[in-house]
Amino acid sequence: MSRNQYPDIRTINQGNSSITRFSTKSPLFICVISYTDTSAIPGITAAGANRDFVKYTPAADAEFLYYGFCKCIDKVPITPDGNPTPAIITRGALGLADIPFLVVDAGSKIKPSIPYVSFGIDPGHNIESGVAVESIDVKKAFDYGRMLGRQLGKSCDLMVLGESIPGGTTTTLGVLHALGIDAKYKVSSSMQTNPHRLKNTIVKHSIQKSRISFGELRNNPLEAVAFLGDPMMPSVAGISEGVLSVGGKVLLAGGTQMAAVLAILKSLGLKMNEVCIGTTIYVANDNSSNLAGLVSSISTEVPAFAADLHMEKSPIPGLEAFARGFVKDGVGAGGTSIAAMLKSDGRINGDIILKAIEEEYECVLHGKSR
Amino acid sequence: MSRNQYPDIRTINQGNSSITRFSTKSPLFICVISYTDTSAIPGITAAGANRDFVKYTPAADAEFLYYGFCKCIDKVPITPDGNPTPAIITRGALGLADIPFLVVDAGSKIKPSIPYVSFGIDPGHNIESGVAVESIDVKKAFDYGRMLGRQLGKSCDLMVLGESIPGGTTTTLGVLHALGIDAKYKVSSSMQTNPHRLKNTIVKHSIQKSRISFGELRNNPLEAVAFLGDPMMPSVAGISEGVLSVGGKVLLAGGTQMAAVLAILKSLGLKMNEVCIGTTIYVANDNSSNLAGLVSSISTEVPAFAADLHMEKSPIPGLEAFARGFVKDGVGAGGTSIAAMLKSDGRINGDIILKAIEEEYECVLHGKSR
Question: Mean pLDDT throughout A139-160?
């Protein structure tokens, strides 16, 4: 196996295993869609053309994965700047490598018109309220996740877990505070200009309300979620636990939001040597956040990988924008790209995925005109 | 491979392929839970301790598969005679062979406390009303089934599809009428004494109401379901279509209810050579029904197999009763037993499964006393 078998997968931290440890012939992708009212705070997220659309984004992303268009909204989710959802990358990568996927609804506000796995929980609250997720829902999300992970962990050799939850980097900042990891100025953003001050202020208010001191809940990560997190976190953590418990491997597909899941898994005392994080190079290269640093401060074992999709070369402005720091990742875009490269033994590379993404984009444009 | 590798799998019809065609290393079981108001007609089903409990049976079966006990009712589902749900066989077989499973909710009246795939459809009506399933739900069930089947068909080498829907043999009789297959006195029953006359009368009334002549809808099977079927049928047919479309194999795990699904697949013009039916020897041996004959009248290609679980040898009366014609099959009991034998290359046989079932039964008794 040549050292350059996967030239477009970069190791971005000091984790102690190489990408070949996560080689896969039969990956499965699960996208967890969710919601937190924290995303309704003005200026916190770009996941939606405007504030009214943010709550539709997770359902629309899930529909886009299946249909290549959305049912709950007229167009695909876009940022206020007009950049498309990263689901366009995910759909391209999954299709290229023929990777199966499922969607889990863990408290999304709008339900997608697809067959989805229901965790039967409510959306998360604004974390400034002092109650982020009802405790009963945190437990249910984790338990159901574990049940699902135990089953589906037997049906794949790599479980790739992504998310669509607007506002999720702010709840990440909150949960990491409770778990004793300083994430200020380290979390990522779907915006080119990361609203760190706003996030810090929101989390400061939330901490004042919930009275959770730094690191106070490091041994009780599910309580940290209940106070300062969102419903995606215990869901993805639960699925991960289930997969690991049956001897499977987990690729957490996302940017800094997945650092929160990683910290939860670490706090639960799980063995981390079968877990990695996979994102896009656009998160890895982002100067306004620090995924590699966050991961290292959580675990020295866990490697973080980034897919280079060469989007700077795209003639399509909405895609080229990813390379300039817009959107960057989400809906498991980076992780599924890595899985596609792995499953194809490197035959699929960043250029090939970019071509597929551009074709998806053309389909979207075409669909719009119909 | 010895001819007697699977001594407890019997071929019960003239299908043109042997069980080795359905060999599997990575099967996946999906149990579709559903409901039809037809089951509320007195005397039609034994799936529930009494009429009030029938609607809980599908959810309780699904919960039993995950937990080994039920949450929506205090005990496991039993017949009025006190015989346990066939889910006890399913759970035993799945556990022995470490076969992963998922539950799909396709219009059950009570929702189980588990992570389930939601098809977002309503329960079926009493077929005597002239509308068995809303047309929009028939289409949705089939479409969502197909979407799910296309994904999960890539994650297994054999898709095993079971059901829990009380009253389902009566709707089977109805749908087969519309599709031009005479199933009178051929459908099975969860009761030892098959209420054929009652079923025939109900279907007669339903036909009078819906005005569907024999074979009238043989080219429109989804419409046949809308007039005379139940929500399980298009769901399982859709999943099957999806699995077949990605090159997978399907084992329809059930008795005569699966003949309705088979007839739908045949009417849709699907290639049947990757489909088989798997049940228990107790359905196959039943003199009051004729699964083999039904299957042959639908397709000469499709083999039907039966698992011999030697339940006549069980010292537990509720299990020994299966061999005397009570319950017989359901919740994919026979099909998952066959899958367990196949996955283990014959190491798991009927005796070993019976032992696991008896252990499940002891756990249930133990649970009851807690």
Answer: 98
Residues of A in contact with B155 (CB under 8 A): 26, 28, 100, 152, 155-156
Is a pLDDT exceeding 70 seen at residue B10? Answer: yes
Q: Which one of B101, B111, B144 has the shortest CB-CB distance to A151? A: B101
Q: Is residue B52 part of a domain?
A: yes
> Is the predicted pLDDT of residue A370 greater than 70, yes or no?
no
Alpha-carbon distance A162 to nearest alpha carbon in chain B (angstroms): 16
Å between B139 CA and nearest CA of chain A: 13
Residue B369 has pLDDT above 90, yes or no: no
Q: What type of residue sits at position B239?
A: I
Q: What's the CATH code of the domain at B180? A: 3.40.50.10210
Interface test with A, best of B101, B154, B241, B246 (most A CBs within 10 A): B154
Nearest CB to A155 within list B28, B66, B117: B28
CA A310 to chain centre: 20
Largest CA distance in chain A: 55
Q: For B218-271, what is each residue's pLDDT tens digit?
A: 999 999 999 999 999 999 999 999 999 999 999 999 999 999 999 999 999 999
Helices (H), ranges, B153-280: 168-178, 196-210, 221-228, 232-245, 257-267
Count of domains for chain A: 1
Which chain A residues are Cβ-neighbours of B105 within 8 angstroms?
A: 118
Phi/psi region, residue B302 (left: phi>0; alpha: psi -120 to 50; beta: rest), is beta
Q: Is residue B90 part of a domain?
A: yes
List chain B residues with CB under 8 Å of A145: 115
A122 located within any domain: yes
Give residue for tokens 């636990």: A241
Q: Enter the ipTM.
A: 0.96
Q: Is residue B1 part of a domain?
A: no
> Which domain does A212 fall in, by range?
9-358
* pTM exceeds cut of 0.90: yes
